[in-house]
Amino acid sequence: MELPTGDVHDFDFLEGEWVVLSRYLRSRLTGDHVWEEFTGHCRLEHRLGGLVNVDEIDFPSRGFTGMTMRLFDVQQRRWAIYWTDTRRAVLGAPVYGGFSGDRGFFFGEDIEGGRSVRVRFIWERRSGERAHWEQAFSLDGERWETNWVMEFTRAGG
């Protein structure tokens, strides 16, 4: 599969502070359909002239804070997105991609429950005040199970 490409300004819409409502699938790739909901607060800042952006998201009811680092490769016109959090403080495997219009697709490989999985992120710019993110896993690259969804609303909006 050809990975999507994008633009250095793909994540400009996400700069600033957000309130985040998360829905998280309790158990992944097991047939479980129980979702847990919790809120968080996120702040994104650009670095290195926009080639890098960093967000920190705090989930007080879950007892951890996460951080996303997005790096734009100018030559490939593609983002690499990395995640870490206070539970382990280890960079996760990246996903790669970019936006076409208001929708971004990002793909990678990871391990879940001891199994190799394909990972898909979808980002949607819904307005200046709202955004949507979701993560899905696949064992075969064809059937996807969405396991984490976040609805972003601009703080103070």
Structural class: mainly beta
Averaged pLDDT: 95
Which fold name corresponds to the CATH topology?
A: Lipocalin
* CATH level-two architecture: Beta Barrel
Main sheet: strands, sense, barrel:
10 strands, antiparallel, barrel
Helix content: under 10%
Reading the helices and strands in chain order gives: EEEEEEEEEE
Shape: globular
Q: Runs with pLDDT <50, length 5+?
A: none
- Strand segment count: 10
As for the number of domains, it is 1
Termini separation: 39 Å
Q: Helical element count?
A: 0
What is the CATH first-level class name? Mainly Beta
Q: For the CA atoms, what is the radius of gyration?
A: 15 Å
The CATH superfamily is identified as Calycin beta-barrel core domain
Strand order of the largest sheet: 1-2-3-4-5-6-7-8-9-10
Strand content: over 45%
What key attributes describe this structure?
157 residues, globular, mainly beta, ten-stranded antiparallel barrel, Lipocalin, 61% strand
What does this entry look like structurally?
There is one protein chain. The protein has 157 residues and is an all-beta fold. The protein has a single domain (12-154), classed as Calycin beta-barrel core domain (Lipocalin, Beta Barrel). The protein contains no helices and ten strands. The chain has strands at 16-25, 35-47, 52-59, 64-73, 78-85, 95-100, 103-112, 115-125, 130-138, 145-154. A ten-stranded antiparallel β-barrel has the order 1-2-3-4-5-6-7-8-9-10. The model has no long low-confidence stretch (mean pLDDT 95).
